[in-house]
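Tokens for chain A. Residues wanted.
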């Protein structure tokens, strides 16, 4: 899991693995300037794509043993403005870094990942959804 507090993340991950037959990926951030974490990962990519990927991959063995397992990923309609850039998942070398464009790309990545999981793990129901538009000041 990608979290601000590694210890809390590990406790939450253990609880999810022990208790759940379902998972909801609701990661989302927009970092408006290119920033990388201590592992060299661009922060939008690390939070919006890599975090849900690692969590879901680690839960798949448990989910496959559950009754009616589901994974729901909250993406964004913003992804509609981006095609997957599979050779540049961390938005390197785009010239001017635009947080909204990078966010949309990471949400497109979530959709593609969900489609991939659905294809290769048919016993698990995978859904990806847009939560609706909100006007937050």
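Reply:
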């Amino acid at each position: 899991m990608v979290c601000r507090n590694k210890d809390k993340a590990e406790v939450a991950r253990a609880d999810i693995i022990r208790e759940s037959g379902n998972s909801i990926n609701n990661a989302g951030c927009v970092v408006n300037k290119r920033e990388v974490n201590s592992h060299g990962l661009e922060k939008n990519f690390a939070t919006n794509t890599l975090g849900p990927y690692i969590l879901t991959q680690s839960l798949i063995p448990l989910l496959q043993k559950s009754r009616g397992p589901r994974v729901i990923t909250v993406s964004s309609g913003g992804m509609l403005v981006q095609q997957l850039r599979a050779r540049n998942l961390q938005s390197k070398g785009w010239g001017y870094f635009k947080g909204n464009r990078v966010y949309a790309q990471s949400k497109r990545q979530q959709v593609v990942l969900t489609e991939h999981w659905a294809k290769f793990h048919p016993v698990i129901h995978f859904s990806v959804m847009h939560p609706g538009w909100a006007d937050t000041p």
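The first helix runs from residue 6 to 19. The chain has a mean pLDDT of 86.
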